Amino acid sequence: MKDKLSKIKNSTKASIKKATEAISKATNTAIETSKTIATSALDQDGDGDFDQDDIKILTEKGVKAGKAVADKSTELIKDAVKSTLVKDVAAGAAVGAAVAIPVPVIGPAAGSVIGAGLGAYKNLTGKGTPNHPVQSKQEIQKDAYSEILKLGDLKEKGLITEEEFKNQKQLLLDKQSK
Q1: In terms of residue numbers, what domain contains 161?
Q2: What is the pLDDT of residues 128-146, one digit of tens each?
Q3: Alpha-carbon distances, residue 8 vs 5, 11, 18, 23, 123 (angstroms)
């Protein structure tokens, strides 16, 4: 019986030793594989190592991407501010807040929300601020130029006089310079 117990003990020790070696080998393989993957993905300068230079390059790329996102966000916000819907919502919110101040049950915050909703409703139903798109200076110049060309065609065809052409051209140029 003692012999059997001794054999089981030795067999168990051998099994534990083999399992420990297998786990150690698997752990080392996982670590090396992780290092290889990380180096492949993060090695920015191609030197085969993930080091401080790579961190610097990744940081610069991150800053550049962040700046691009910020620039695009700013552009979108500027376009949104030009929107008549935004203007009507903001105006409605301001009026709602001001009107609701003396009403303790509603208060300025709820008044703003109600006013903003009414502003949006007015805009979407066509009862709000008229939609006058803002033209850039280049668009205005292009429009003036095309109008002058049309006037020139009308003058050449004899449909308007030289004096009418000059007067209309001057009006367009004056409008463009504003």
Answers
A1: 137-177
A2: 555 555 556 666 666 778 8
A3: 5, 5, 15, 22, 86
Taking the model in full, what pTM does it have?
A: 0.35
Cβ(108)–Cβ(97) below 8 Å? yes
Q: What is the mean pLDDT of residues 61-83?
A: 69
Number of domains the chain is built from: 1
Quickly tell me which residue has 């420990």 as its tokens: 20
Residue 122 within a domain = no
Nearest of 102, 98, 104, 101 to residue 116 by alpha carbon: 98
Q: What is the residue whose two structure tokens read 């070696």?
A: 21
User: Considering only CA atoms, which of 18, 160, 161, 152 is closest in space to residue 172?
Assistant: 152
Note whether 96 and 111 are within 8 A (CB): yes
Q: 81-95 burial, b if ≥16 CB within 10 A, otherwise e?
A: eeeebbebbebbbeb
CA-nearest of 87, 94, 85 to 121 is 85
Mean pLDDT of the chain: 74
Where does the chain show beta strands of DSSP type E? none
